[in-house]
Amino acid sequence: MTAVGKRLVSQIVYQIDEVIRDTRTSREKRIESLQDLAMTCWQEVVPEHGNPGTSQNLESDEIQKRWAKVRDEVEKYETKSQILYVLDWPASSGDFYWVK
Q1: Are residues 42 and 49 in contact, defined by beta-carbon separation less than 8 angstroms?
Q2: Which of 2, 1, 75 is nearest to 84 (CA)?
Q3: Whole-prediction pTM value?
Q4: Please, is 79 exposed, middle or buried when counting C-beta atoms within 10 Å of its C-beta (0-12, 13-18, 19+)?
Q5: Residue 42 half-sphere exposure, CB side, CA atoms within 13 Å?
Q6: 99: closest CA among 14, 43, 37, 33?
Q7: Which residues of the chain have pLDDT under 50?
Q8: Model confidence over 70-82: pLDDT tens digits?
Q9: In whole angstroms, how far apart are CA 44 and each of 8, 22, 80?
Q10: 58 within 8 A of 48, measured Cβ to Cβ
């Protein structure tokens, strides 16, 4: 991940934390925002994800290294378990039951 990419991921993680903590916005709007932020993060961390030809060429170790940098960023937040849930959403299709 480039330095620019790392800054962008830091901003995305910060925004996810802000949305999680926001209680004034409707649940539906917050979930939509969290899903958009998760997809943006995935596109930044694994831009090859949507391209079957290139994503298959990526080694598992390379993908794990990229996500390790994201996890390091997430560790700075009290809401880290929720942030990780959001970031896992594109792979798990979770239901955001915990968003009130």
Answers
A1: yes
A2: 75
A3: 0.85
A4: middle
A5: 19
A6: 33
A7: none
A8: 999 999 999 999 9
A9: 8, 24, 19
A10: yes
